[in-house]
């Protein structure tokens, strides 16, 4: 009898719990969030989302991994076409122009924040970051989150072996050329390589030397931009790379981030690549290494080298026919949570991405992160060292991933000796402009 | 006398056919129709704006100087893959068909590669050919041969041809082996008694009797080389260096999925479809005449 009563009670209690949690579930607004970060970064991002879910009981954000950045973009586009877009999607920086041209498919963040009465101050963000994701009149179109920039890593042990000062990284290109010569003489098979050939050797080069990558302020001015990368600065720079490659002082390691592994393995003495490579180097390198800003050409520059531009991704709000105001409200709460300096600083320190807000930088400083991790401040310093100009805000070019591939293809033909550097650049401009015209045509209203 | 099945019910035959027709409609006719519709339109990535442009997407392809190069690469690639996978698998099947110790083990091992996903297979190839971490790549560079498929187009093309053929060898092997086992032993034995050597027996008896299998595999391999080698190329070279390993199917993917140019990509798939239809027709009209069906 006692047993039966207990059983009855516990059944009632169970039913009560179920109905209570059911009620709680019903109250929660569910937000779908698609991202393109593989492990371990994806897991770290999901931890941030979990932090938000645990911090309140109104909104449940479901983070799901949709493959690489281009795959995530494709998934989001396909979902939108099917009327089923996620609330929030993480989009890599080169997809920015495509997203901005998407018109009714996206909800600009400034609009979302205004409608839901939340505050988001664009001035809180580092200009090189905010500028990349801002509309022509300076309004935030997406929420910046994981931003990187490109810097240089060098192997201090190999520098010492070649008789170079391990505590002084080459600051200019002539210094870097001299260093690769010494490294080669010391028997290093790969003195220097570059990841992301287009991003680092074209886009960053242009920004640092305040030289346009494309007309119309790198595309910020309108869809009718044309590429400018056959200008003398680019020709001189790429000719230098081709010459170094012939002499065995530079090694072409492949497209995009394929060459990343050449540095932590000790194969290449110098690599220029994403600042995000840092976490991998920390984990894998068995030698002393240093980080430094990208070098510049003293004879191609007026005054100081300018700020570099960003890479990485931002969060975009997508629309769908069945979206409710409550869902937008929930998204804006999620964004407000993400925009806090504490979240920004923690993400930066955990992952090697740069802090996107000024307060985030200060917080990381205050916690003594840069004293414990020398060189970790290089990316942010390079991003903020000068005020942005029209050439250093970033790129706003349609189908930029395609243009990057075209440049890589033409570059490979130049490295193989199938064409001269000038031919490669002219051909990149010509083919790239076709892409830009097609984008302009498909997206004109 | 011929036996015929008579259906009393007029509806039943249609019902029995329906699943097959539905599958064909949903998975073949409908996507193909979509591709044709897309190929005469220019559209933005999100499908918000669409413009009917007649055959502009096609003229864009034909006026693109790079497309000729892609066609050339595809021709070299497809012919090489088909020839290589057919000849190697025929050789292996003939060897496995003879009376040797442990034939079952060889047969099983030779069939294995077919079960491997192209991406996984490509990673394995990378462990062989990568100049820094690949076993063969390191060896070649150690011998002073400058092996670097990231910058040498010919080396890259050779590598993807090898990788793509290897994958198809097991498939061909199964069919060839089955074909060989179906050849009556008595005919071969009679030829032996008449004094025909193994080479003569192969060319005069085995090869002609095997021709239905060979012909079937020729068609299948050609379609494979044109359409299903995408994964291998994607994982190994991404069409590079330059455009050295860019085949038609890889470019369809690149333009459609990566570059969001659905019109151009669809126009290319329509062209690819036409090329395959023409090739298959040629094969059936001219090559099939030489096939002996018993």
UniProtKB/TrEMBL annotation, chain A:
Alphabetically ordered keywords of this record: Signal, Transport
CDD domains in alphabetical order: PBP2_UgpB
Superkingdom, natural source: Bacteria
InterPro entries tied to this protein: Bact_solute-bd_prot1, SBP
Subcellular location: Periplasm
SUPFAM superfamilies recorded: Periplasmic binding protein-like II
Signal peptide extent: 1-26
Cellular component, GO annotation: periplasmic space
Assembly, per entry: The complex is composed of two ATP-binding proteins (UgpC), two transmembrane proteins (UgpA and UgpE) and a solute-binding protein (UgpB).
Role played: Part of the ABC transporter complex UgpBAEC involved in sn-glycerol-3-phosphate (G3P) import. Binds G3P.
Family: Belongs to the bacterial solute-binding protein 1 family.
Protein name: sn-glycerol-3-phosphate-binding periplasmic protein UgpB
Gene coding for it: ugpB
From TrEMBL, chain B:
BP GO terms, sorted: transmembrane transport
Domain of life: Bacteria
Recorded topology in the membrane: Multi-pass membrane protein
Quaternary context: The complex is composed of two ATP-binding proteins (UgpC), two transmembrane proteins (UgpA and UgpE) and a solute-binding protein (UgpB).
Keywords attached to this entry: Cell inner membrane, Cell membrane, Membrane, Transmembrane, Transmembrane helix, Transport
Function in brief: Part of the ABC transporter complex UgpBAEC involved in sn-glycerol-3-phosphate (G3P) import. Probably responsible for the translocation of the substrate across the membrane.
Localization (cell): Cell inner membrane; Cell membrane
Any matching Pfam family: BPD_transp_1
Residue ranges annotated for the ABC transmembrane type-1 domain, each copy included: 71-283
InterPro entries cross-referenced by the UniProt entry: MetI-like, MetI-like_sf, UgpAE/MalFG_permease
Protein name, per record: sn-glycerol-3-phosphate transport system permease protein UgpA
């Amino acid at each position: 009898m006692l047993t039966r009563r207990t059983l009855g009670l516990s059944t009632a209690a169970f039913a009560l719990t179920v109905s209570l949690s059911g009620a709680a579930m019903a109250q929660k607004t569910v937000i779908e969030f698609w991202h393109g970060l593989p492990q371990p970064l994806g897991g770290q991002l999901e931890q941030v989302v979990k932090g938000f879910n645990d911090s309140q009981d109104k909104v449940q954000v479901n983070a799901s991994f949709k493959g690489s950045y281009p795959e995530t973009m494709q998934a989001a586009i396909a979902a939108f076409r099917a009327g089923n877009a996620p609330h929030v999607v993480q989009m890599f920086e080169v997809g920015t122009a495509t997203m901005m041209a998407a018109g009714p498919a996206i909800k600009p963040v400034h609009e979302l924040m205004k409608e839901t009465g939340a505050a988001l101050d664009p001035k809180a963000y580092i200009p090189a970051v905010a500028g990349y994701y801002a509309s022509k009149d300076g309004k935030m179109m997406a929420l910046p989150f994981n931003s990187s920039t490109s810097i240089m890593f060098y192997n201090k042990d190999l520098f010492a072996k070649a008789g170079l000062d391990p505590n002084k990284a080459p600051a200019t290109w002539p210094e870097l050329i001299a260093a690769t010569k010494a490294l080669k003489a010391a028997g290093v098979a790969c003195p220097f390589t570059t990841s992301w050939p287009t991003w680092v050797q074209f886009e960053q080069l242009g920004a640092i030397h305040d030289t346009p990558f494309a007309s119309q302020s790198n595309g910020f001015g309108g869809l009718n931009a044309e590429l400018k990368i056959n200008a003398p600065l680019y020709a001189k720079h790429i000719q230098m790379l081709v010459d170094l490659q012939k002499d065995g002082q530079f090694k072409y390691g492949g497209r995009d981030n394929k060459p990343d592994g050449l540095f932590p393995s000790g194969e290449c003495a110098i690599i220029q690549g994403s600042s995000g490579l840092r976490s991998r180097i920390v984990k894998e390198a068995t030698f002393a290494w240093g980080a430094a800003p990208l070098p510049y050409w003293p004879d191609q520059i007026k005054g100081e080298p300018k700020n570099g531009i960003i890479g990485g991704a931002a969060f975009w709000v997508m629309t769908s026919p069945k979206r409710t105001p409550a869902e937008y409200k929930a998204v804006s709460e999620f964004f407000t949570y993400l925009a806090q300096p504490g979240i920004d600083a923690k993400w930066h320190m955990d992952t090697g991405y740069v802090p996107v807000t000024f307060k985030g930088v200060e917080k990381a400083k205050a916690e003594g992160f840069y004293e414990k991790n020398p060189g970790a401040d290089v990316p942010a310093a390079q991003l903020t060292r000068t005020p942005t100009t029209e050439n250093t805000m970033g790129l706003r070019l349609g189908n930029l991933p395609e243009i990057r591939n075209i440049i890589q293809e033409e570059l490979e033909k130049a490295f193989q000796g199938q064409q001269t550097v000038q031919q490669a650049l002219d051909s990149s401009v010509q083919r790239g402009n076709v892409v830009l015209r097609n984008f302009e045509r498909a997206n004109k209203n | 006398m011929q036996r015929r099945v008579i259906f009393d019910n007029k509806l039943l035959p249609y019902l029995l056919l329906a699943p097959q027709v539905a599958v064909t409609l949903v998975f073949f006719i409908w996507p193909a129709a979509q591709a044709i519709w897309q190929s005469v339109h220019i559209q933005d990535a999100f499908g918000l704006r669409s413009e009917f442009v007649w055959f502009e997407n096609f003229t864009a392809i034909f006026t693109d100087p790079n497309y000729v190069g892609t066609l050339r690469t595809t021709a070299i690639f497809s012919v090489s893959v088909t020839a290589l996978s057919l000849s190697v698998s025929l050789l292996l099947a003939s060897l496995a068909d003879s009376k040797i110790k442990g034939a079952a083990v060889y047969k099983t091992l030779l069939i294995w590669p077919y079960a491997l996903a192209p991406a996984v297979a490509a990673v394995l190839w990378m462990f062989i050919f990568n100049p820094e971490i690949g076993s063969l790549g390191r060896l070649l560079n150690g011998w002073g041969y400058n092996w670097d498929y990231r910058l040498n187009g010919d080396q890259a093309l050779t590598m993807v041809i090898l990788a793509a053929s290897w994958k198809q060898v097991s498939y061909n092997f199964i069919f060839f082996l089955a074909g060989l086992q179906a050849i009556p032993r008595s005919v071969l034995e009679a030829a032996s008694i008449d004094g025909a050597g193994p080479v003569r027996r192969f060319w005069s008896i085995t090869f002609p009797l095997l021709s239905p299998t060979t012909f079937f595999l020729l068609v299948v391999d050609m379609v494979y080389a044109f359409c299903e080698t995408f994964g291998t190329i994607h994982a190994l070279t991404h069409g590079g260096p330059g455009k050295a390993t860019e085949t038609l199917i890889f470019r369809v993917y690149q333009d459609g999925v990566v570059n969001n140019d659905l019109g151009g990509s669809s126009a290319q798939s329509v062209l690819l479809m036409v090329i395959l239809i023409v090739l298959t027709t040629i094969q059936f009209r001219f090559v099939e005449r030489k096939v002996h069906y018993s």
